[in-house]
Write a structure and sequence with these properties.
TIM Barrel; Immunoglobulin-like; seven-stranded parallel sheet; about 30% helix
Length: about 475
């Protein structure tokens, strides 16, 4: 990999020793290995490109969404893949449908939490791989309206999101472990015809019965190809019913945006990282590996810095309650966004081609936002190096723009600065960070800024150390 290229792997390797970024669970990453992603296709017309830009405009501004994995697996509490990973017989698993009895108002609690967290849209697993439909469908009795809940949980979700001013997204798993044709369709043409019709019918209901839907988030297109799923016809139907919707790239077609999972990986198109707050997507009652608010803020910042979105998951319990630690962390993130939202929402991407040792970067127009997550103060080296004097210096190598002014975003306190062709030094900072978990400095520039510390290598004044002649 070229040294100058941004990669989440390199960033994690650089921060791993600090404990800021914990490694993702290899099991969690392996679970979705079958969720192959397709890249954008060439040859689109100008009309198609313009229409996609129109449909994506709100989403690019939003940056931050809530993913919700919730279904029969929540009753067991062993994450969402429990049916397959533990080999539960289907007749036994079906019994859960009668004991899945969510409390009233659960979706409204999620939506209120999402709003407090600063998230702008929500995506619900309307049907996960287990095959249980959370809405009132005419195509199967294996659904919330005809089993334990005795009501349409998707409708409750839609109404709750809209009540809080949030955009509405539906996740839909093409793979189905429950339907009798779900695997038979791979080799049996008649089963394939039935199952594809069933799948298209369920998606049609979702696109028809709930008013305007903003996102359709397909998942795992096994065991069929895009041609066998008739994915072109599938998407054509979706856009005819929902002309403003955006769709992802997991039904075998490129869709409108890419969906890296458990990793931040920029693409040369619209993209969205989806990730968990602990190690699993669905509720896992004994999983206490919670990400910290600082980790989540920095991951959100990194997505924004590279021009992408961040879809962060909650795994509600069977009754719909959100684990207390999820609530606590999201509320901390939301409080931070209340102050620092300008440094995230609607940012342009491309602020940096290199990472700092204790900071991250976003930009909006000519403003560079320096996100300081390890406050640089009281370092012993300051007594010897004038570069770090006075104390509490934030230094950024290779800022590719002229600095006009700087301030602390939270307080508005102006900062002093010096700049040359090697580094920008921001001084006049307090000894302790004025914000938590991350302090943002707003730096006004004379042009759209880019941080590239690699660019300074030829700029250093070199001396004769090790040179004998």
């Amino acid at each position: 990999m070229p040294q100058d290229s941004i990669s989440r792997r390199n960033f994690m390797l650089g921060l791993g020793a600090s404990g800021l970024l914990a490694p993702a669970s290899s099991a969690a990453m392996a679970q979705e290995a079958g969720a192959l992603q397709t890249a954008a296709t060439a040859g689109e017309t100008e009309v198609q490109i313009a229409d996609r830009a129109r449909r994506l405009a709100w989403w690019r501004e939003a940056k931050f969404g809530m993913f919700i994995h919730w279904g029969l697996y929540s009753v067991i509490g062993h994450q969402e893949w429990v049916m397959e990973s533990e080999g539960i017989p289907i007749p036994q698993y079906e019994i859960l449908a009668k004991h899945f009895t969510p409390k009233p108002g659960a979706a409204r609690e999620w939506a209120r939490l999402a709003r407090r967290a600063g998230q702008k849209y929500m995506v619900l697993t309307t049907k996960h791989h287990e095959g249980f439909c959370l809405w009132d469908t005419r195509l199967t009795d294996y659904c919330a309206a005809k089993q334990g809940p005795q009501r349409d949980l998707v409708r409750e979700f839609v109404e709750a999101a809209r009540a809080e001013g949030l955009r509405v997204g539906f996740y839909y798993s093409l793979m189905d472990w429950h339907h009798p044709d779900g695997i038979r369709c791979e080799t049996d043409p008649e089963a394939r015809t039935r199952f594809v019709a069933y799948t298209h019918g369920l998606i049609r209901e979702l696109m028809t019965n709930y008013g305007k839907i903003d996102i359709l988030w397909y998942d795992v297109d096994k065991p069929l190809t895009a041609e066998q799923w008739e994915s072109e016809r599938m998407n054509k139907m979706v856009f005819e019913l929902q002309p403003d919707i955006i769709v992802n790239n997991r039904n075998g077609l490129p869709g409108d945006f890419s969906t890296p999972e458990h990793k931040i990986e920029a693409a040369a198109r619209a993209w969205e990282t989806c990730d968990t707050m602990n190690l699993g997507w669905g509720y896992q009652k004994n999983d206490t590996e919670w990400k910290t608010p600082k980790r989540i803020v920095n991951d959100l910042t990194t997505c924004a810095q590279q021009g992408g979105n961040y879809l962060l998951n909650i795994g509600p319990m069977a009754d719909g309650s959100v684990p207390e630690e999820s609530v606590r962390v999201l509320e901390r993130v939301g409080a931070w966004l209340d102050v620092n939202g300008k440094a995230i929402y609607g940012t342009d991407g491309g602020a940096s081609v290199s990472f700092g040792n204790y900071d991250n970067f976003t930009r909006r127009g000519n403003t560079l936002y320096v996100h300081v997550y390890f406050w640089p103060a009281a370092m012993p080296a300051a007594q010897w190096l004038s570069f770090y004097q006075p104390q509490s210096v934030v230094a950024v190598g290779g800022v590719q723009a002229k600095i006009l002014s700087a301030r602390i975003l939270k307080t508005g306190q102006p900062l002093q600065f010096t700049q040359n062709n090697i580094s920008l030094r921001l001084t006049g900072l307090p000894a302790t960070p004025p914000d938590d978990p991350v302090t943002v400095l707003a730096v006004e520039c004379d042009a759209p800024p880019v941080v590239d510390h690699h660019s300074i290598r030829p700029e250093w004044q070199r001396f004769k150390v090790g040179v004998t002649s």
